[in-house]
Each structure stands twice: as structure tokens, then as C-alpha cells.
Amino acid sequence: MGGSGGSRSGLLQAVRPEEQQDVAASPRRRVVLPAAGALLAGAVVCDFVLTLSTWTGGARTMGLPAWPVLVTWGGQLVGIALVLLVLVALTALLGRVWAALATVLAVALPLAAVNHTKLVLRGEPVYPSDVGFLSQPGFLGSMVGPGRLALLGLLVVVPVAVCFLVGRVLARRHPRPHRRVDPQGWRRHVLTRGVVLGSCLLLLQPATQFNEPGNPWRGAYDRSGVVWRSWSQTENYLFNGFVAGFLYNTHVTAMEPPPGYGPEAMEEVARRYQRAADRINRGRTPGTLADVNVVLVLGESFSDPLRLSGMSVATDPIARTRATMATTASGSLLSEGYGGGTATMEFEVLTGLPLRNFEPQVTSPYQMVVPDLPSFPSAVGALAADGHRTIAIHPYQTQMYRREEVYRAFGFDQFVHDTTMAEQTRLERSPYLSDSTAYDEVLAREAASPEPLLAHVVTMQNHMPWADWYDDPVPVAGPDDPDVRAEVGTYLRGLSYSDAALADFLRALRRSPERTVVLFYGDHLPGLYDDVLPSDPARTRWETPFFVWDSRGNLARPQPLTSAGNLLPLLYDVVGEPVPPYYALLERLRRHLPAVTRRYLVTADGTEVADEASLSPRVQGLLDDLRLVQYDFSLGHRYALDAMWPQG
After folding, report:
1. pLDDT tens per residue across span 465-509
2. 3-state DSSP call for residue 496?
3. Are 297 and 457 in contact (CB under 8 A)?
4. pLDDT at 30 over 70
5. Which of 191, 212, 394, 540 would you label with 6, given CA atoms 20 to 30 Å apart?
């Protein structure tokens, strides 16, 4: 006993006098309130920084004031409460307020910077599905640039260092209980931390299922007065706060079963469009595509700068493409994105399924729908069943938009990418493989394949950022910012190189003894035009060129404004290939409503339709049938797949 008491006395003497006082007097009253205040201040700062990044990056795109005067403040308070719970949980886990603050700030500040950058360059905020890009630091670095990367590093290092220094000072004044000095206090301390951590995790867990019916956090936001803007995720982030927008875009069932869905309903739909296909196919020759190479080319950021009234350029950078469009079935494509969204356009072209019919949180089917399934119906399977060898060609990394998994689900025989392409040509100082490299890969594959080829090509040459890559950027007037003018000039020079490469590719195909049909389309405008777009009609931001070209000869066939899902039915029409019942459905819809996107419904005469309810019963019926088919093909039981779109 005496030895034990002496040992304890020695430990007490080893602790500084002020620490003995803290241990004896229980410092909780002096510590808890300042700690709570620090955590609350940290939650407010984090939420404010994230909200500010959204407004400074996105308000200009939406034509709104650069300060969040229209934010639903009730929603902001719910967001602050969520951040505060995360901070309290981390404090309980790590045992130090400063460590919790440093951890959250080290995440929130770079996230705000990335969110701002993505809004400026692509017109959309950071989504939960973007976490996949963290596995591609090289790509992220090339998008952001060394200057912004250095700033990003400072945004992590500085707050962590400040929190660490402040924490060291406060730790001397308010030490935690020592296990040997105050075992009872230490046990209370550990138990309290455990209870607090468990309570916070229980409160936070429902946030991981934010979009499930009856979710309490979703209910808290609803009661706070937020309005969920399903038509625009940028507006969700702007008006409801970053935290609300981010949670709204977490996991959700991609599509609920439409009313009446079942085997009988799908059998009736299949019969209806088999009859429609029989009528469309009168006069068409079965097997027309059986010996024809089909090349689908997505031109990265390929657009028509001459359609922008707020900008003038010295020369037409796509003069050859414009000449081709004048002699083919061609027109303007209504894109789903501005400055980004390439994979969504791929998805709609290959599947015919519009993004509009999925839940609004589904911003990228390539990342959020297709990889979760072992297979997915697409034109790849349909043409493979017709005897085509199927190849995807993308001169970049395989991880982008999880393409390797998606192409496997679609059924491609092979995926040729940056490290497996025969050529590795880059133009001047560009970091990307050139368009001509991708086209030469197609020509080589066609020559080597005894079967007809389906080549799905996604180019990369004109991808952002547009730095000082070329010696002779195209002179341009219009953008006020000289840096933007320089970027636009570089982009336009790359566009002219793409224009020349495409013309050379078509010339080579025309000389080949094999017949080839080419569908070419731009996926979206580059995110460069915010200075000039306000003077243009709103829809201009979303329109890109497309054409269908046949090496055997073409006729000029101007097309109405079209959405991506209608491009392959148009190709079948141009070639004279009999359509399967699924394409008969898309063809019927194209005649009445050729452009269907999440933002717009546009009729054949170019009229924008504000609401589906204003459409004729016949067109509404077509849209309802498409929803049934979309659910059946994607998340349903595929009752009608074999009857409507054989996949082999």
C-alpha cells in the first residue's frame, strides 16, 4: 500500500502544478464550452466555404448574382448540423478538437477548390460519383494545372498546421486524464468518447441512404423549405447548399418501375412495335448492314464556333466537316452537357435510352448504372448478333468513366486504349493522342478483320485544358478575358486539326473496297464560352454538329434538332437497314419529338415543349412506352429484350 501510494504521489509530482489542478478540479466545465464553440465555428466555416465555391463557380453560368443571396438558409442550417456531427464524431474518435478540425478542413477546402474549378470548366458541381477520379491523379493534375495544384496543397497544409499549433498550446492548458494518474477520470473520458462517437454514427448513418423514402435527413431538408430541382443539379447546389446537393446525388435506385410494368405489358409493347417495324421495313433489304463496316465517332468537344453570335473567328475551323454535312444526313445534336458529360452521350447513342427517364440523381449511367450489371443491352450486342466484330477505341486511360467495365458489359470484343494503340502521335505540345491516331487505328483494324467491323471511337485530342499547345492559335474576338481568348484560340486550332483528320479518314474509307458507314457527332461544347453565350439563345450552349456518311454515296438530308438516342435509328434509315422493334419505337418518337434530353423536349419544327402534359396523347403514349422499355432493358427483367432488340 505504501509503495503504491508513493508511486501515485510521485506521478502527481511529475505532473506540472497546473495539470494537477486540472486533474483534481475536473476541467470539463472549462473545456467543453470552448470546444463546442470551436467545432460549431468549424462547421460554419466549412459549410460557408463550400457554398461560396458553388456560387463563385456556378452563379455566372446561371446568370445569377455572385453572392448567395437566394440560398435557402434553412437548408444551410441542416447542412451545418451534418458537418457539426462529423466534427463531433471525429473529435470523439481522435480525442482532440484540433485534429478533428484539421481533418475536416483538409477535406473541405480542396473539395471547395475542385468544385469551383469543375463549375467554371464544365458547368456542373462535384458529384459523389466523381470520387472514382481520385484513382487517376495524373488526369486530375493535367486538368487543374501545376499552379492550382500548388494552391490546393497549401489549402491542405496551412489549416492542418494552424490547427496543430493551436492544439499543442491548448493541450498544455487542458490535458486529457492520465490513465495512471487518474484512472477513474480516464475511464469516464474513454466511455464518454465512445458514447459520443456511437451516437454521432447513429445520427449520421441515415445520410448514407438520403434518397430512400422516409429518410429523416431528407425530411429535415424538406421541412426547412428547400426545393429539389431535379432538372438542374447545379441549381440544387446553388440554392440548397453544397451539402444538400451532394447528398441529393448519392446512391439512388436509377429508375422506379413505371405504372403497369410486367410481362403482359411488355409483351403488348413488343407486339405493337413489331407491327410498326414491319411497316417501316417495307422496301428495306434485310441484311443490308451485314457486310458493312459501322464506325461511330464521338468528336471530343467538337462544336461549331460560327453559331455563336457573341464571338468571331478569323477562319472557319471546321470548313471540311461543314462541307460534308451539306451532302449528308446531318444537323445539330442536342447534348446533355456543357463542358463535360462525354460518357452520357456515348451511353445514349449506344443504348438509345435517354438520361431523362432515369432519376435526376443519375448524372452518369456509365458510373452509376451500367457497371452494377453483368451485361447491358446496346447496339454492340445487336450488331454482334449480325456478324460484326466489335471494337471500342479511346486514346486515353481505361479508368475514365469506368469505360473498361462498361465496354465489357456492352459486349465489346476488344477495347483499344492509350497504351495499346499502334500509333502514339501527339500534335505539337498537346498531351493527348491525336484524332488521326484514332482514325488510323480504325483503318488498320478494318483491313485486318475478315468480319465487318463495328468501331466505336471516342477521340481525346480536344479535351480540356487548352493550354499553350499550338504555335498558331486561331485569332478570335469576343471573349473579354485575354486568357480566355488565348484558350479559345488554342481550342479552335485543335478543332481545325480534327477537321482535317476527319476529312482524311473519310477519303481513305472512300478509297477502300469495303463499304463503311460513319456516324460522327460532337459530344458537347467546350467550357470556354461563358463570356459570349449570354448573347445567344439558351439552347445554343447544348448544340453540336452530327452527320451520317456512307462511302458508297450520300444525299443531302437536313435533320431537325436531334438527341443522341436517335442517331443510330437515323443511321439505319440512311443505309436502308430493316429496324428491330426497339428502333421502330425510337423512329416513331423521332418523327414527333426528335430531341429528348433532361433539359429540353423539342418537336420536329424546333418548338420547345415546357411540359410533357402539353404533348398530344399519341406522343405521350410513345414516351410512356419508352419508359417501360427503358426500365425493362436496364433494371427490369428484360421480358421484351429478345423480341424487340436481339442481342445474340
Report:
1. 888 899 999 999 988 888 888 999 999 999 999 999 999 999 999
2. helix
3. yes
4. no
5. 191
> What is the rounded CA–CA span in Å between residue 50 and residue 44?
10
Cis peptide before 374 (omega within 30 of 0): no
d(CA 467, CA 99) in angstroms, rounded, equals: 39
> Whole-model pTM?
0.78
Question: Is 149 a residue whose pLDDT tops 70?
Answer: no
Average of per-residue pLDDT across 337-350? 93
Matching residue, cell 431537325? 560
Please spell the DSSP secondary structure of 46-99, one letter per residue: HHHHHHHHHHHHHHHHHT--SS-TT--HHHHHHHHHHHHHHHHHHHHHHS-HHH
State how far the Cα of 560 lies from the Cα of 102, in Å rounded to an integer: 55
Share of the chain above pLDDT 90, in %: 56
Residue 236: pLDDT band (50, 70, 90) is confident
Please report the pLDDT score of residue 491 as a whole number. Answer: 95
Residue matched to cell numbers 455566372: 60
- Residue 461 is given by DSSP the state T
Number of CB atoms found within 10 A of residue 558's CB: 11
Residue among 99, 76, 74, 75 nearest 88 (CA): 99
Nearest to 540 by CA among 304, 346, 299, 235: 304
Q: What values do phi and psi take at 238, rounded to 5? A: -65, -50
Residue tagged 418501375 (cell numbers): 257
Q: Grid coordinates in use for 329?
A: 444526313
For the chain, what's the residue count? 648
What span, in angstroms and rounded, lies between the C-alpha atoms of 228 and 221? 10
Domains in the chain, CATH or no CATH each: 28-248 (no CATH), 286-577 (3.40.720.10)
Q: Position 1: which residue type? A: M
For residues 628 and 631, give the distance between their C-alpha atoms in angstroms, rounded to a whole number.
Answer: 5
Q: Which residue has the higher pLDDT, 9 or 265?
A: 265
Name the grid cell of 362.
443519375
CA distance 249 to 614: 29
| Spatial CB neighbours of 231, under 8 Å, sequence gap ≥ 6 | 360, 598, 599
Q: Residue 38: is its pLDDT beyond 90?
A: no
Q: Are strands 329-334 and 562-563 parallel, antiparallel or unpaired?
A: parallel
- What digits encode the pLDDT tens for the residues 392-450? 999 988 877 889 889 999 999 999 999 999 999 999 999 999 999 999 999 999 999 99
Distance CA 614, CA 616 (A): 7
> Which residue is it, cell 492542418?
160
- Rounded Cα distance between 156 and 162, Å, is 11
- Buried/exposed code over 590-618 (b: 16+ C-beta within 10 A; e: otherwise): beebbbbbbbbbbbeeeeebeeeeebeee
pLDDT at 10: 42
